[in-house]
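[stage:ingest] chain + small molecule (flavin mononucleotide)
[stage:ingest] validated
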Amino acid sequence: MTISDPLLQPYKLRHLTLKNRVMSTAHEPAYSEDGMPKERYRRYHAEKAKGGMALTMTAGSAIVARDSPPAFGNLHAWDDAIVPWLAELADACHEHDCKVMIQLTHLGRRTGWNRGDWLPILAPSPIREPAHRAFPKEAEDWDIERIVADYASAAERCRAAGLDGIEFEAYGHLMDGFWSPATNRRDDAFGGSLDNRLRFTFQVLDAVREAVGPDFVVGIRMVADEDMTSGLSREEGIDIARRLAGSGKVDFLNIIRGTIESDAALTKVIPIAGMRSAPHLDFAGEVRAATKFPVFHAARIGDVATARHAIASGKLDMVGMTRPHLADPHIVAKVMRGEEDRIRPCVGATYCLDRIYEGGEALCIHNAATGREAAIPHVIARTHGQLRKVVIVGAGPAGLEAARVAAERGHEVLLLEAASRAGGQVALAVRNPLRRELVGIVDWRLAELERLGVDIRFDCYADADEVAGLAPDIVVIATGGVPQNPPLEAGDDLVTSSWDILSGTTKPAEAVLLFDDNGGHPGMSAAAMIAEAGAALELVSPERFFAPEMGGMNHVPYMRVFHERGVTVTINTRLRSVRREGNKLVATLGSDFATGWKAERRVDQVVVEHGTAANDELYRALKPLSSNLGAVDYAALVNGDEILPARNPAAAFGLFRIGDAVASRNIHAAIYDGIRYAMRI
Ligand SMILES: Cc1cc2nc3c(=O)[nH]c(=O)nc-3n(C[C@H](O)[C@H](O)[C@H](O)COP(=O)(O)O)c2cc1C
Ligand code: SF4
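[stage:predict] done
[stage:export] tokens:
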């Protein structure tokens, strides 16, 4: 980095000076409480402000009206009660010279009617959005008048709270619903010609400008090409951008390409791991060239080099790095300190976004501090307490994270790994090309451990005596799990585990049945690899929806492979037993619903995925030798006190286990364990 770094140049936007070119675009992390951005929300944004970004676009789709029911924890911009909360949030970010804006919207058809106040949802025309599945009514004249006024009063609240500006959401929501021929079939003054389709937008802009005055930034995050037959064309989209830019009513355009009406479409707008980096950057640059107007954009501009290129090449004025800041809120600070290589990479897992629907809150797969700023720091401080010798067994995500955090706290850390490389189940997961980027979770930690001088010993299979002989103060067991079979009436010895497929130790046969009753990535990855190998595959799940542990966006690349390769998916069906007949296997399937129902499949291979059993032999051997006999005070773990009760005080070391060495879970759970336990050493 030098002071001439294009990313670090200030940018003048209307009366505001943004101190550099890096922003976080609007995203609702579902941290709201009662529709308000309270402490959790504030800390989350304040951390990014502290980390150096110039502009944080808060909320994602803060709703301006009651008949836009929250779809994923959206902020209630229609409620006066939001003003003091927004004011506190703005103050917390302004303290670090980070500008704060908010995205306002009416969700239109992109929500459900059976939430909030159960008011009917509406859209320009009564056409259902596949993703949220609700049938909207056609917006009437009195709806339009009411919602225009709602936009204006919401904008007024934002100004009253001391925010620096607002942005309207105009892709997949009500505003652009009027623009698109795919969603607007009206024959009144709001349908037909482009002038008519833009009428609602300009009515909103006029009302908002009147409410907030000239010295308040108003932007629009807009689709400028729906990239869909019958959707808004590139020509019309750029025409809209030109008209908005020329209107004098907006201050920036934040460019989107694509639609978001289904999960598959959404992954083109917000690409996930395994998909192209910065796919719409050139297009955003074209809009900038066509309008000669301030252009912002985000879509998988995942690393600083690409972000720098986006600014240096003149494609963008402000570059959005949204998920990258969930992974590391201190990106700009690190660039400024010349520590670019220490930025925790966003690996594109999109656990964050999938969780706003599946888990009710955005969490980063490998940064457990994000969204938990009150309890877990992003920067680990040295302990003021006693320095200890910590022996960690297992260099999977849990062990690596525990080692990193313990070493940051100043402890002497020795990390033992039985295999010849680090990663545990992440090393297995990355064998699926779709998930290759997860390697960043391991590589970033290995680089941090090297910097911290942690002693890592590979090919080191330590027994209890050897571990005790190292004279540790604390032993952390992070030995992970081993694959286990689902309960079968017969045929345990005839099935192949998903791990055998993922690791490549067993090749997929010609006709394969895969029974996945875990419902997460391991089963889906094994299925994708079997299908890609050319096998005839039937995926059987006992669930109503298969792969319930994975969110909608992560589902997309797997489903693409399944369709392309002709995979059969059978739900609501359980594998009961497997027997051999000649050179074939016969899988007997049963039903939880109809007693006595059964079906059989003759295949060459039966693959099973049923999570892992804890690999806890070493833990159990060390337990009686430890000062806490393995016990953990969970209340203390959550509240921040001493976590290891003295049950055997004469013993020399405390002992706990983390990650899948406790029970089968996922990468985030392993990393969360790693940091929160190590914080207490
Ligand atoms: C958890 C989450 C919620 C999001 N919600 C919104 C939203 O409400 N409105 C919006 O315009 N974009 C939303 N986005 C999209 C982001 O603004 C951004 O366009 C997207 O993450 C791609 O940029 P990135 O690759 O830098 O993350 C959301 C993203 C995430 C991760
Ligand atoms: S969950 Fe994945 S995509 Fe989301 S911020 Fe973390 S690393 Fe990035």
